[in-house]
Amino acid sequence: MLQHPYAPADTEPMNHGNIDDDDDFLPDSDSKYRPGTKKSVSEYLALDAEDPSLAAWKASLLGNSSSLEDSIPTSPENTTNVTLLQLALEVAGRPDVVVDLAGLTEEQLAQTVFTIKEGVEYRIKVQFHVRTGILSGLKYLQSVRRLGVTVDRTSEMVGSYAAQREPITVRFAPEEAPAGVLARGNYEVLSQFVDDDGVVHKRFQWAFEIQKDW
Q: 103-107: long-range contacts (C-beta < 8 A, 24 or more apart)?
């Protein structure tokens, strides 16, 4: 997620001003990906029932139950109800640093600062709850700024999930924090969770600081 180059290290306090910029989350102009037509849970269950490969995919998504009532909770409107619960920084040998996405206000999230030791391997993990319907193609988008300049953009595919009674946890690929005096300092982050239908399930600001040590 964190890429060079970085501006020289700064020592001023964090600026928690608004960095909300839709341009940071625009898709690539040459992207050929087009999401499929949205379907209800019932339609997914009935879709191409004779296709073994599709049946295996539906089983992984919806579970092995043959009836809709036994497989997942539903709503009369077949809408998807997603709650983002946690964003966490995971480093081997250290307790996770957890941000409560469900319990904190936008203002409180904007005041949240992760400390990352330079050069350390870490990963981001998210926890969310799909309460009804099917969540299709959830993506995590992240824009990192320093001194008002965008220095990194990240897009991580979280996946597609049917409603489940228990929260879902997804870990992203490990990353290595940059090291050196030029990398140290404060960074502001704008994060967004959006699905294939363009529904933004969560959008928030937070921050991190790269330090020489913990």
A: 106/204, 106/205
Let me know: does 162 contact 187? Beta carbons within 8 Å: no
Residue 144 and residue 18 in contact, taking contact as beta carbons nearer than 8 Å:
no
106, part of any domain: yes
What's the whole-model pTM score? 0.71
Q: Is 102 helix (H, G, I), strand (E, B) or coil?
A: coil
What distance in Å separates the CA atoms of residue 104 and residue 92, rounded to the nearest whole number? 26
Q: Alpha-carbon distance 76 to 8, whole Å?
A: 55
The model's pLDDT over 131-188, given as tens digits with 9 standing for 90+, comes to: 888 888 999 999 999 988 999 999 999 999 988 889 999 999 999 998 999 899 999 9
What is the C-alpha separation between 102 and 113, in angstroms, rounded? 17
Give domain status of residue 182, yes or no.
Answer: yes
Q: How far apart are CA 204 and CA 186, in angstroms?
A: 17
Number of domains in the chain: 1
Strand ranges (E), the chain: 81-90, 97-100, 113-117, 121-132, 134-146, 149-162, 168-171, 175-176, 185-194, 200-211
Question: For residue 198, what are the domain limits?
Answer: 80-211
Distance CA 46, CA 39 (A): 11
As a whole number of angstroms, the distance between CA 159 and CA 53 comes to: 18
CATH of the domain at 198: 2.70.50.30
